[in-house]
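Re: that chain you flagged

S.,

Sorry for the slow reply, it's been a week of failed gels. I finally had a moment to sit down with the sequence you sent. For the record, here it is as I used it:
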Amino acid sequence: MYYLYFFVLLFLTNNLFGISDFAPDFLIIGVTKCGTTSLYDYLVQHPKILSLKKDKRKPCLVFQKELHFFSNDYEFKKGMSYYKSFFPIKMDKSEFIGEATPFYFQNEKCAGRVAKLCPKTKLILILHNPVKRAVSHYYFFNSPKFPKRWQGLSFEEAIDKSRSWKNELID
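Prediction finished late last night. Pasting the structure tokens below so you have them in one place:
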């Protein structure tokens, strides 16, 4: 009987402090415009790979693939219970869950956070030829759905402009 009380107390304590044995099976990381969305789309078509729950805050999305939990301090402070709420419940051990947030590769805090909280999670890193990625990024941000950040700029002008933005961020 005492063992039951101990496990209930342990369960409640872990959940109160955001400690959990939960971890996704995989994280897809990489750089912007390298194919993380495509890979995630392909993976969740498999019946044993479960997609993330639809985010109620973003009703226009069919599904959400980028949680930014490990890279966003505000999201990270909400704890593992909050993070876990985006994932479906696995009905058997042969099912897999994961997410794709390219920015985890670029953010310095992510590696330590993932290593500490999800040590068994597999990382899938996608890289892209830097020149082709830059061209893809240019056309992506030149599309009508984005603010006029690069609209009207040639590719070369956009590269120069992005260098100045990067230098402003570093300074």
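What I noticed first: The helical segments are 2-16, 36-43, 73-76, 80-84, 108-117, 130-141, 155-170.

Talk soon,
D.
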